[in-house]
Design goal:
The chain is α/β, with parallel strands linked by helices. The protein contains four helices and seven strands.
Amino acid sequence: MTEEIAIGPQDVLLVVDIQNDFCPGGALAVPRGDEVVPLVNRLAERFAHVVLTQDWHPRGHLSFASSHADRNPYETIELGYGAQILWPDHCVQGTPGAQLRDDLQIAHAELVLRKGYHREIDSYSALYENDHRTHTGLAGYLRERGLRRVFLAGLAFDFCVRFSAEDAKREGFEVVVLEHACRGIDIEGSVLATRRALAALGIPCVAAES
């Protein structure tokens, strides 16, 4: 339970992609995604250090189904870096859908990290592009700040939260996923697959507030 976890000066809350397009009414809405906002606002009050991420795609991004003739959203294709789910156009740079939610109130957040802005490659993780080679710079930022334990919350649990958690663990950080403050898309069992993948890496998921 989150109240039982002691939060210290080397801990950071990573708030993933709480943007209009990922909430009800958005272009790629995560079911009940708006429910995480008050939870994350309360969690952030416990952390001296908070980082926000923002999906930030150029128009015509390669991950958009509209960029591929005769393809539909949620189909999977093979690209140079591996399998890619095709998404509805979402979080396009400068559009209202790409903006962080107005009710996300974390004034003391120290960094807003934008990802997914390379046209030819998608970026689920806050630490790497989907080729697992191209860094976003977040790992270096956290190390230089002396931050060692990463708590994650946000959208979507089974994509950007999952990949960020896995990469943070592989980069040597302690990782905790605050699942009660996440919501998932759940494509073909991806929520269950995420829980299993995180457990296999020894990443704890906090499932409910006490």
